[in-house]
Design goal:
Strand order of the largest sheet: 1-3
Number of strands: 4
Strand content: under 5%
CATH architecture of one domain: Up-down Bundle
Largest sheet: 2 strands, antiparallel
Helix content: over 70%
CATH class of one domain: Mainly Alpha
Radius of gyration: 24 Å
Structural class: mainly alpha
Order of helices and strands: HHHHHHHHHHHHHHEHHEEEHHHHHHHH
CATH superfamily of one domain: Sodium/glucose cotransporter
Number of helices: 24
């Protein structure tokens, strides 16, 4: 059978599984919808967290970025992985102990202000919408290539699937679906990596093949021969300062991502939150230690398969012609010599490769079995849909819980709160679908923007909210507004308005670090220039950090919001 037939089988079977899990996990109250009844076991929550966090950017695009950037691409490995460790050790247990549904809930109560809550809601929606755009693009790319449908059609199919289990089951349905999706995506990532490592180096373990074989030296020489910098050359694509700032933005952005933080609210207690963080780190490490090896294999195979090949030879490559139809792979014989050359100069380069196709095309380039190719497609969809569902629930809960229930109608019944939550999921899916069809960049780049926005808005107010009892509402509001506005204006100006990277050449992906520092400074300065928080808030912060104390009950916490 062809790869397309195998893909249809795998996608159909996996989607039916997701729909079944969503149906079995349907909920009838807001606690189940927003925090899965706080009853998810630690190991299952670890797998769900890994799937939620390892988005289409991790599965589809990260290896592509490393493949194109070489050494400089390691910023994504260091930033995302280091950020998760920062979140797991420094923030997650305290946020779980606080016992709320969402990050805006924490901000609103810790800073005793509905204005702070609204600013946090706006930031959560902004970050989540930016992030989800990358996921829906990933869905469209997979469907476009492997099921031969337009990207827009693929996005719509993905929207329908996510809508089903997210609207029916809320966080409970999403969590158990993500456990299944992690299983699919990690198998789909490892099998081709192991197969390619064996074929190219004779070493079946990708990490060992990358470290102990001569594949990197070979690729370095190929790169030099073609006029590129060595694959392992440092700072050949980005400046040292930009690499540093992007890495920090990704780290603190990870620690501020609302859809990852909310995962720690779904376990029974603080101890389970710590254990689930450990499991998640293990599950994440399996993929992240494989990515550099896969990126290297992919780069070597693509150059070997395409560079200096004749038009006739390329036309005989079935995988190349199919990817060409998607518009993500382009050939232009600029010098009319009947051959295609890959060069670093865009004026003479005749092969244009979209970074998002690296992982998805690698099994085909390596001539692996059709079922392996199809498995990778199913894994890419699992990665994109798992993260998209978590993000959509953040948007839903930010509006339905933090705005509607906490501010507009505190007396709303369970059924009404549940209905508003589901309506918001549906509305969010529609917006996400639009951005999936009209994305503002390639997958990992779009996701990097989301991390920058999270770094500039959430991280300072969360870290200070836990460890500095003197930080008050005036400081938190001012800091979030300044950080979010500065980062948003810089990103929009550089990416869409032709503005130069005026801050020492720092790119749009790294400017979140500057926004975070501005947020931190403004928050601390304004807090010290204005009255301190009420005594009960300061006592609550002290209590939050005590390993023996129980959470201080707050007057506006309903009975359904358990600690």
């Amino acid at each position: 059978m062809s790869a397309e037939v195998w893909t249809l089988i795998f996608v159909t079977v996996s989607f039916m599984g997701y729909l079944y899990i969503g149906w079995r996990s349907r909920v009838k109250d807001s606690k189940g919808f927003f925090v899965a009844d706080q009853g998810i076991p630690a190991i299952a929550n670890g797998a769900a967290t890994a799937a939620d966090w390892m988005s289409a950017a991790s599965f589809i695009s990260m290896a592509g970025l490393i493949s194109f950037l070489g050494y400089d691409g390691s910023i994504y490995l260091m930033g995302w992985t280091g950020g998760y460790v920062l979140l797991a050790l420094l923030l997650a247990p305290y946020l779980r102990k606080f016992g709320k549904y969402t990050v805006p809930d924490f901000v609103g109560d810790r800073y005793y202000s509905n204005i702070a809550r609204i600013v946090a809601v706006i930031a959560a929606i902004f970050v989540s919408m930016t992030y989800v755009a990358g996921q829906m693009r990933g869905v469209g790319i997979v469907f476009s290539r492997f099921l031969q449908v337009p990207i827009g059609t693929g996005v719509v199919i993905g929207m329908i699937i996510v809508a089903f289990f997210a609207i029916l089951g809320g966080m409970k349905g999403i969590t158990w679906t993500q456990v299944a999706q992690y299983t699919v995506l990690i198998i789909a990532y490892l099998i081709p990596a192991i197969a390619i490592a064996t074929v190219i180096t004779g070493i079946p373990i990708p990490q060992f093949a990358f470290t102990f074989s001569d594949i990197v030296e070979k690729l370095n020489q190929v790169q030099i021969d073609l006029g590129f910098a060595e694959y392992t050359a440092a700072f050949s694509n980005k400046t040292m300062l930009d690499v540093l700032f992007i890495t920090i933005a990704l780290m603190v952005g990870t620690a501020g991502l609302p859809h990852v933080i909310v995962r720690f609210y779904t376990v029974p207690d603080v101890r389970a939150a710590r254990y689930s963080a450990g499991w998640a780190l293990l599950f994440i490490a399996i993929l992240y230690t494989t990515a550099p090896a896969l990126a290297t294999f992919a780069r070597y195979n693509l150059i070997d398969s395409l560079h200096n090949k004749t038009v006739e030879e390329v036309q005989q490559l079935d995988w190349a012609t199919k990817w060409e139809k998607t518009g993500l792979l382009e050939f232009t014989d600029k010098n009319n010599d009947d051959r295609f050359q890959l060069t670093p100069d865009q004026e003479t380069n005749e092969i244009k490769i979209d970074r998002d196709i690296i992982v998805l095309s690698t099994p085909e380039v390596a001539k692996l079995a059709p079922w392996v190719i199809a498995l990778v497609a199913a894994g890419g969809l699992a990665a994109a849909l798992s993260t998209a569902s978590g993000l959509l629930l953040v948007i839903s809960s930010s509006i339905a819980h933090d705005v509607y229930y906490r501010m507009i109608d505190p007396g709303a019944s369970e059924s009404r709160r549940l209905m508003v939550g589901r309506l918001m999921v549906g509305f969010s899916i529609a917006i996400a679908g639009y951005f999936g069809v009209n994305p503002p960049g390639f997958v990992a780049q779009v996701v990097a923007f989301a991390f920058g926005l999270a770094a500039a808005s959430f991280f300072p107010v969360i870290i200070l909210g836990v460890f500095d009892k003197r930080t008050n509402r005036e400081g938190a509001i001012a800091g979030m507004v300044v950080g979010l506005l500065f980062t948003t204006i810089y990103i929009m100006g550089v990416k869409f308005a032709g503005m130069p990277t005026w801050f020492f050449g720092v790119s749009a992906e790294g400017i979140g670090t500057v926004g975070m520092v501005l947020n931190l400074i403004v928050t601390l300065v304004v807090s010290r220039m204005t009255p301190p928080p009420p005594l009960e808030i300061q006592e609550m912060v002290e209590n939050l950090r005590s390993p023996l104390a129980v959470p201080v009950p707050m007057s506006d916490i309903g009975e359904e919001e358990l600690n």
